[in-house]
Amino acid sequence: MAQQKGIKVILDILKVLYSLKRNLAGDINEKVKGHDVGRSEVISIMHMYVQGKKNMGQLCQDVDLKSGSLTSVIDNLVAKGYAKREYDANDRRKIIVGLTGKGQNLGKQVCDYVEAHAYGKIGQLKPKDREEFFHAIGKLQSIVESFEKHELKK
After folding, report:
1. What pTM, to 2 d.p., does this model score?
2. Tens of pLDDT, residues 42-60
3. Residue 74: which of 110, 91, 98 has the closest Cα?
4. In whole angstroms, how far apart are CA 151 and each of 84, 140, 154?
């Protein structure tokens, strides 16, 4: 019985986080309609747009995909003209991925949309609720960092 309560709490936490993501990000699928890109591709484009070129290992961590899955995503983005691969000048074993002009344009469109949508939602909150929201997000960020530090010690 105690285990059922524990898993319910975890599922409730995940449900709230998913709902928060959905509410803040808006309908990205509608924004990219006609661009022939999937969810993982859009997330990868957004990360590269905001953070610039990345090696595959860094991008794997950022988008939370395994290497093989990200390789497929990047293969698709290269084939569709949104991304390009190049060798790292300092270590030719490393592949750097970045956006083409077409990828930059889509990245800007999607990031601008998500930013406007999120700020619009947050802007609807009462000032006190907005302050509490940002405090709660900061606390969650601190907790996640603590989890990650403990994970690294294992």
Report:
1. 0.82
2. 999 999 999 999 988 899 9
3. 98
4. 33, 16, 6
